[in-house]
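pasting for ref
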Amino acid sequence: MSFGDDISNKAKDFGGQAKEKFGEATGNEEVEREGQAQQGEAAADSLKDKVGDTFDKVRDGAEGAGEKVSGFVKGIFDKDDKGENGEK
């Protein structure tokens, strides 16, 4: 999640809280519900960003592991091709 996304989600949440409190203070249930919905959207966006970040980390880790395994296997076959003395 980028810093900008994080700020945007926090701003949306804060705005929703303000709208909810304003609705409570004025007795306007519709505005209160809109504020609650806005907070829910902010939470969902934040969760979506975190899931995306986690996926990226898992993908990057899997790619790195694949490269290590590939290098290990290549090293085994190179060693077998050279024989015990290191000659072909």
